[in-house]
Amino acid sequence: MLGALIERGIVPDLVLGTSVGAINGVAIAAAPSAAGVQRLTDAWCDIDRSQVFDGSVVRRLATLARTRTHLHGNASLRAMLTELLPVSRIEELAVPFGCVAASIERACEHWFTDGPIVPAVVASAAVPGLLPPVAIDGEHFIDGGVVNSIPLSRAIAMGAQEIYVLHVGRLDRPLEAPRSPWEVALVAFEIARRHRFVGELAAIPSGIDVHVLATGQADPPRFTDRSQFRYRDTADARERIDRAREASARYLDERDLGPR
User: Fold this and answer.
1) Whether the predicted pLDDT of 31 surpasses 60
2) pTM of this prediction?
3) Of 9, 12, 171, 241, which residue is the least packed, with the fewest Cβ within 10 Å?
């Protein structure tokens, strides 16, 4: 999606990110160019080498037994971000950037808009159960998707007039009533994750354009598809990236979007 935008001269004035979107967002905020997109693409296609989700089943279970809260540490993610980014503080990025995390103690969303980049992004991407909460200034943070998965209202409040939503694909498939006990929790989570975005999208003020880019998935998996839990399998990352790039390029071309 980023590749399709940059190729058409659509360069962001502001980048907001949640969870994995914070990782992708900070990379493009650091280098809003074709070279920056390529570097991010290479990072995802080579994610196995970076060992972000490292370790055998035995090692992961040992981590869970030791911590009682998560399967992986976040040292590898921190190292990947440090290597990927040319600067260390949010205010040094080429494009204004913010990412959101969920504060445990205050039970609310918290936006990081200045200060050290890596702790903020790692906090935003701290998926509960997979990665540990991140302690910053005596407060603990987990994945921003818990409180604000697609921050439309934040972008509008900051003055955005044209917004491009780059999502991970779940929005492409409607929800269905659960058919088994284990699906009940997944349905509840998806409703909680989607309802804010759906409501904000319906209430967009006149004069503001919102474009939800295409993922290129012809038949998106059901929200209950267990393949989504194979998060360590990135063998088809480049294929997914190529499909999304082509689909988003078609979307942009059909609407003649780009510099006038």
Assistant:
1) yes
2) 0.89
3) 9
